[in-house]
TrEMBL record:
<comment type="subunit">
    <text>Homodimer.</text>
</comment>
<comment type="pathway">
    <text>Carbohydrate metabolism; galactose metabolism.</text>
</comment>
<dbReference type="InterPro" id="IPR036291">
    <property type="entry name" value="NAD(P)-bd_dom_sf"/>
</dbReference>
<feature type="domain" description="NAD-dependent epimerase/dehydratase">
    <location>
        <begin position="4"/>
        <end position="252"/>
    </location>
</feature>
<comment type="similarity">
    <text>Belongs to the NAD(P)-dependent epimerase/dehydratase family.</text>
</comment>
<dbReference type="InterPro" id="IPR001509">
    <property type="entry name" value="Epimerase_deHydtase"/>
</dbReference>
<dbReference type="GO" id="GO:0003978">
    <property type="term" value="F:UDP-glucose 4-epimerase activity"/>
</dbReference>
<keyword id="KW-0119">Carbohydrate metabolism</keyword>
<keyword id="KW-0413">Isomerase</keyword>
<protein>
    <recommendedName>
        <fullName>UDP-glucose 4-epimerase</fullName>
        <ecNumber>5.1.3.2</ecNumber>
    </recommendedName>
</protein>
<keyword id="KW-0520">NAD</keyword>
<dbReference type="InterPro" id="IPR005886">
    <property type="entry name" value="UDP_G4E"/>
</dbReference>
<dbReference type="GO" id="GO:0033499">
    <property type="term" value="P:galactose catabolic process via UDP-galactose, Leloir pathway"/>
</dbReference>
<dbReference type="Pfam" id="PF01370">
    <property type="entry name" value="Epimerase"/>
</dbReference>
Amino acid sequence: MKTILVVGGAGYIGSHIVKLLLKEKYRVITFDNLSTGYRHAVLGGEFFLGDLANRDDLRRVFQHYPIDGVMHFASFIQVGESVTHPDKYYQNNFVNTLNLLDIMLEQGVKACLFSSTAAIFGEPLYVPIDEKHPKNPANPYGRTKWMVEQLLNDYDRAYGLRAICLRYFNAAGADPECQLGECHEPETHLIPLVLQTASGRRKSITVFGQEYDTPDGTCIRDYVHIQDLCQAHLLALEQLLHGAPSDVYNLGNGAGFSVREVITSAQQVTQRNITVIYGASRAGDTARLVADATKARQQLGWNPQFADLSTIIQHAWQWELQQLQQKGRG
């Protein structure tokens, strides 16, 4: 049985990964400081309360468990906050990752899966976006992720630490069994915001901009179901554990949906009226972000099972109704 350390395993993506790894009979150690994650979201395995900023915490977990590989999800992700508080993002996303890599080398662990992002590309020069697209991140969040990718590349050349970087476009949806889902504070992702409006937790959803160069004038994004995202991680992890070299993969459906299409689909799924307010476009929002995930399909054997937008929204809606019910009981 291989032992996997999931750093940031109490968050949205990390918690879904933990569940899948346990199902696949891995021994799972979750390492999290619970600053944005939730202890109750870790559905099994062993939990270690620790902080990446503290090398002694890291050293203890590596010395206590026979770790075979690391999956790293412990990043701050809010683009707007990264602009107003870049120090927070460079410290957590870059410096703390340096701590993790150094302790991995110290303890002889040389397999790492890194949660990267489409934000490293910046304004797209063409779509769909493949792995070779120029990297020009438009905000500190994207820059920290691109810096870590370069750091991993340097650590591979110098020390033989192999890493696979998975660049997500828009992770969405929830566990089909409704045990897990999105629970950000504050919530900034479109689909949960739309569904919170449908459920009555929010009064309205604001659409930023109607004059983009898209069929309906609203931004187009590539949504990939959290379950499909986790499957890609599992496939990449298995390759790493079998000695595969470092690599990078874009993860998306290859089909984008506009903001207006998401709202329309949500109304159909929920059978609820959703109040929409139209606001001005936001600086930095690109018209279209769509992934070319051909490489992941061909080399990892990745085959997304939940590519349909209505399915993504249906699973997220089940989760939203459950959260609403629990808050009502509380």
